[in-house]
Each structure stands twice: as structure tokens, then as C-alpha cells.
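[job 4471] stage=fold_predict status=RUNNING
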Amino acid sequence: MLWLTRPPLLRWEAALCLVCVAAWTEFSPRPTVEIPFLAVDVEAGERLTPDVIQFRTVPDPGFSPHRGDGFAATDLRAGDPLLPSMVATVAIPPGWMIVDAPLPGSPVPGSQAIAVVLSETPGRPATTFSAVIVSGPGAEPFGAALGTVALPPAYLAEAAAAVASGRLVVAVTSP
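[job 4471] inference complete, writing C-alpha cells
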């Protein structure tokens, strides 16, 4: 007789526990962290000081924000979160732009450099211009030794095309 058997109470309790755990993980508040945001607009090369940064409590974004002192790598707008890619450890000359380029060895940030764009056609002279090392190459074992270089904006398009085609050579002088 089916109606005289004991109900499956343990299975019901297990199902109730599973529903409670699922509801807790879905509706529990996410962990929050203090993230630095820019309080005012900052121009490229300007020093980032505590008065231009405000900290906001936000849900954990899953990336590492920049917390230290440095210089703005590009023009930054108020309200943007401060990321490591937006901060340089050395001053960038006003108006200069940054680009990733292959660097020899492990140059010190702030070192002066000469960038040479090799010509695509034989017999045409190479273009040379001054540059500043912003950061050395990372520790990527299988990639190229790319670092960040600041250069005058007049040479940005030519230098970016040369990096893409492998025609940019950076010669680093001592700091």
C-alpha cells in the first residue's frame, strides 16, 4: 500500500539545504573593495597626487587597480578608475604619446633613447627621433621583449606602423 510508506524526509531535507545554499550564493552581497578613481581631469605627464584621486567602495571588479604614486601616461578624465596601464613611473614630456615597442635588454625607466624607423624601400634613409623609456619589457617568457616608449606625437603613426611590421629599433642610452 503506497499511502502507508514513510515519506522521503531525508531527501526533502537535502533538497531544502541545496535550495538554501543556492539562494545564499545568489543573493548574498558581493565583496567590496576600495578602488581609486580620478577626481579631476589629469593631463599626460602630470604627477598623480592624493588630491586628484578619490577612493570609492565598489563590488570587487576582479582586476588590480593602481595604488601608488606616478605620472599620467595619457590624458585621463575625471571619474575613470585608475589602472596600472594609465600610470607611468617616469615623467612623460608634455604632449608626447606612448607606444609599446621592442626594447633591448632591461632598460631603466626614464632612460633616454633614440628610435630608428627603418625604411621599407631600399636606399631610403631611416627616420630617427628621440624617445624616453617609460617601462621596461615585462616577464613574458614566450613573447617579444616589449616595453613602453614615449615619443613625440609627430612620429606616432610612423612608429606604430614600424612596430607592427618589425621595422622599429630602439637604442637606449644610459640614464
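[job 4471] summary: The mean pLDDT is 83.
[job 4471] exit 0
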